[in-house]
Batch of 2 targets.
Target 1
Amino acid sequence: MSDAAETASTPVLELDGARATIRLNRPKHLNRLQPDDLEALLKLFDRIEADPAIRVLVLTGTGRAFSAGYDLNSVAERATSTIEQNSAGSAFEVVVNQLEDLGVPTICRLNGGVYGGSTDLALACDFRIGLDSCEMFMPAARLGLHYYKSGIARYVSRLGVNNAKKLFLTAQKINAAEMLRIGYLTATVFSLEDLDEEVEKLAAILAGNAPAAIRGMKRTINEFARGQLDEEAADRRARESMRGAEIKEGIKAFAEKRPPRF
C-alpha cells in the first residue's frame, strides 16, 4: 500500500477481494478528522456491513501519521454552542462506537503517530499493528476536556485502569515500545514493507475463518468487555453454530486436512 501524499479528501475506500481498506486522506494535516470525514466514515461502515463479500476491514492513514485526531477548531466551536454540543458534539463518539460494533474483524494499520480522539478510533479496532517509530498521546487533560464516557470505558476495558489513568490524566506521549507493553499495539514492525506484510498476513487469517462465528464471538467479547453481555443471545448464537453450515465445513476440512472454504 502506497503512502504517497495525495490530494486531501474524505476517507477513501479500497476493495481487494474479501478485504476492505479505509484510508484517512488528509496527509498535509496529519489526517486530522473534519465533520465531513465523520459522515463519510459512517457511510463507509454501513456499506461494509451490508456487503457479505467483505470479511475484514483495515483502517489506515495516508502519509506520515495515522491521525492527529479530531479538528480542535470544531471542538472549540461546539464548546460555545449548547445546541451543537447536544447534536454534532456526539458525532465522533458515534463513529468510534460504530467502528467497534462492526461485525467484520478490524485491523488498524498504524503507519505513524496517533493522537487525541484517533487513539480511541484505533482502539475500537480489534487489532493494531504499528511501526516501531509510532507514538501516541491523549491530550484531553491539557485541553480542559472531559472525554466522552464510552471512550474512557474502552481505554479501561482494553488497557486497564492504571494505564487509562496514566494516559488520560498525565496527557504524556508514549512510544511504540510502551504502546506494545500496555497492550495498545498488537505488534510492531520496522518498516512500511513489514507493516504491509504483517497486516496482509493477519487480514488473510481473519478473512479465511468462519464469518458467522467470528461475527458472533466478536459481539460476545465486546459485550463482556462492556459488562453488558446478552447471555440469551450469546447462548442462542452458540447453539445455532452447532447446527450451521460453517461447522459442517470446518469439521470436514479438518478431517480432510485442508483449509476450510467458508
Target 2
Amino acid sequence: MPGEFRTLIVIVITAATMVLEIVAGVVFGSMALLADGLHMASHASALAISLFAYVYARRHAHDERFCFGTGKVNSLAGFTGAVLLALFALLMAWESAVRLLTPVTIAFNQAIGVAVLGLIVNGLSVFVLGGGDPHDHRDDHHDDDHDQSHHAEHHHAHHDHNLRSAYLHVLADALTSLLAIFALLGGKYLGLNWLDPAMGVVGAILVARWSIGLLKTTSRVLLDHQGPDAIRQAVRRNLEEHSGVTVVDLHLWQIGPGVYCLAVSLIAADPMPPAHYRQCLPQNAGLAHVTIEVHHLVESTLD
C-alpha cells in the first residue's frame, strides 16, 4: 500500500532526527529545540501506530470476523494519533511554562543548526506523505452551483484518516522546527531569550487545534455518524424520482476510507425486487454494503 510504504520512510527519518534534536536540546539548553525533539518522539510512536494499522488492515482484509472489513482500523489509528498529539501539546505547554519561569543558558549557534536540519527533515517527510489526504478538507456541505449527485460521486474520495494523522504529525513537527528557529534567532540577535519557551507555548496551542480537528473527523467514523449529506440526498432523490417510491428510513455510515454502508426502507404501490432499486443508486458513491427493505403501500398504510 502506498500509505504504508510512505509512512515507513517517514518513521525512519523522523526517529533519527528525533534522537539528534533531543540530545542537542539538552546539551545546548534550548527548550524550543527540546520540544521539537520530544514532539518528534511522540510522532514517531504515532507513525508506528499508523504503520501497524496499515499492516493489520491488509492482513485481515478478508477476515470474516470483521463484518464490514477492516476499514475502521484506519480511523482508529488516526484517532489514537490525535490523542497522542493532544497529550504532547499539554507536555509542550507545561515544559515551556517552566522554562519561562526558570530560564537556562542557550548555545544559540549549535541549536539553530540542529533546528534547521530538523526543518529540512520535516519538509522532506511532508513531501513523502504527499499532503496526507488532499480530499479530507471536504465536509457535508455543497455548492449550489453543482448538482448534488456530482458531489456524491466525488465525496467518497479516499478519506485516509490514518495517513491524514501521519501527515498532521509531520506538519506539526515542521511547525515546531520553524518556531524553534524563529525563537533562537530572536534570542541570539535581539536578546529575547524568552522567545524560546514562548514559542513552545504557541506550538502547543496550534498542535492542540490540529488534534481536536482530527479527533472530530475520526470519532464520527468510529461512532457511525451519518454519512455525507450530498450522498444521502442523492440516494433519496434517485430512488424517489426514478423508481416512484417513498424513502421512509435511510442510514448511511462510513466503514472505511471512502466506503459507506447504506440501509434504506422504501414504500411502493407496486413493489419491485430490491435488485431493481439497487440499480437506481448513485454510481461511484462508495456504497459497498447496501441493504434495501421494500414495503407495499397498502400494508404500510394499515400499519
